Amino acid sequence: xxxxxxxxxKRFRTEIEGLRFIAALLVAIYHIWLGRVSGGVDVFFIISGxxxxxxxxxxxxxxxxxxxxxxxxxxxxxxxxxxxxxxTVVAIATFWIIPSSIYGKTIKELxxxxxxxxxxxxxxxxxxxxxxEQAKTPLEHxxxxxxxxxxxxxxxxxxxxxxxLLKKLKTIHIHTTINIILITLFLGSLTFSIFQTSTxxxxxxxxxxxxxxxxxxxxxxxxxLFKIKIPVMFSNILGWIGLVGLILTGIIFDVSTxxxxxxxLWPMTCAILILLSGNDPSHFGVEALLSRPILMKLGxxxxxxxxxxxVLLSFYKYTVDTHISTLIGIGIILLSIALSIITTNLVEKxxxxxxxxxxxMRLGAFFTVVLCLIGTLGFNYKLNNxxxxxxxxxxxxxxxxxxxxxxxxxxxxxxxIKYITNDKSDAYDDGGMIYQGAKVKPLTYGQKDGYxxxxxxxxxxHSSHWLGALQQIAEKDKIKITHLCKANARFTMGExxxxxxxxxxNTKDYIKKHKDDYDLVFTTADVGNDxxxxxxxxxxxxxxxxxxxxxxxxxxxxTPRLDINAIEAYEKNKNVTIDVSKQLPDKxxxxxxxxxxxxxxxxxxIAPNHTFKPVRGNIFVFFDSSHMTNTFSRTLGPVIKDDLMxxxxxx
Length: 651
Prior knowledge:
GO molecular function: acyltransferase activity, transferring groups other than amino-acyl groups
Low-confidence stretches: none
Shape: elongated
Keywords: Acyltransferase, Membrane, Transferase, Transmembrane, Transmembrane helix
Number of helices: 27
Number of domains: 2
Mean pLDDT: 90
Pfam families: Acyl_transf_3, SGNH
Main location: membrane
Subcellular location: Membrane
């Protein structure tokens, strides 16, 4: 290529280094003490877009093209060292520190993090990053690194195409062309992000398509920011507004339901204001603070700080306490900084500043060691996995829900804790638990031929976890079960997220069309974390709709939704007890029964006398904070059978 690819004003933006540290510090602070998203990762994304665009343009200006080997070789030397060190630490810790209940999950995420698809692993395993009640691995934060790696691949392809385009069409205005392409990416991805956040926020959070706009915005800032000139005083004010706005992001917004849609524009805009103020440096601007030598040095290790803080936080929670005091939190941050300095200086820099095949051979050897460690973990997991007892009936050895309140549990407990998160209703493995979209997907269980009664099990995951109980009954009685459930949804006319409401409409239409097929509808009657004494009106309206279709309703009171993960609590204290009086207040179900529905409360078999114990009758009750294991659900079959058969016979 003759001449330079693109001329952009060159200046080392010292404030970027300080901003990177502030972003990493915010992520750590919000994770440690607030349990919320800070907007710091979004700042990382815009900075990454800015810096990689600058780097690519510089490379093309020097070489006339974008070299595959030099581009990805440089990235590997910069990104892999810290990652490999931390994955090694986590892999070794998995043998001794990681809770058994997330052993298998951690192995999967080690592989996903090593190969930079952790965001997709979390998305397709239906992880809710913002839900503090879900069991967390020490690697969940690697989702951001994975998206960043995927973005670097996209940018290589994009700019290689642009170079090719320039060679074919030498008359194009390259600056305008790149701007048009990046603006198109920005608008398209942002629009998609807003849409998917409103319909499936958990998936959108990890979806690279819903995140590309953040990197594209960074590229646009690099291409155009230097052109913007504003009065120094106004620039200073904007910069400080940006810094304060960034710090307050997680406090101002309910990010648990709004990220990464349009709300993510807030931290991005704050970052842009900070960068804009750096166009005209002054002693009173925010860039003067961010350009201080100490912040610049810390910014240089911000990648390591981000990676280490979550690992250390997780280890502390696994081994000591889930409550993080001010002193302990500060200690975690300082130790993250110290470890980042060590890994950066002793591992990353020597590799990054080395050249030739030997450095890649060392990286390859290190990569192989990590892969072997993960393989050993996986082999150990499979080797110690007994024949999985999924359909154990209630019996003398494993009474489960049928055990007396004062029953003393034995040492042999089902399911094995390492595999407990697999012990869900059959609908999960069969694809009947809908996570994405609003499509109705009925699945049948029990006696599919020659049945006498047909039950429709409908609702969300708290309806689905009763499938085991119904299957246990259906094994001996002529009952067919149709499962019709969606995760995070409820069978209610009340307010839900947009996707769940659409699913509810589709479900109503389906039931109306097939109403003559069913003898009874089995569903939940309320929400187990609702302290109100009145049942939700939306449930009453839904049951009234079923009444209009002449469909009898067998409604069970919801199981208590704990404030903590039951298995994590058990692993810390085998004798832990949890008072669930708050989740199970005295409630007036009469308005619901006035619709003709029959309401039953079986929580005394789950948490006798409002006292929840993770293990009951030698069986784990929940696999998380509120969902019954399928093994325990089956032991509720004999408990509900008489009531259920009476309602079926009178239907």
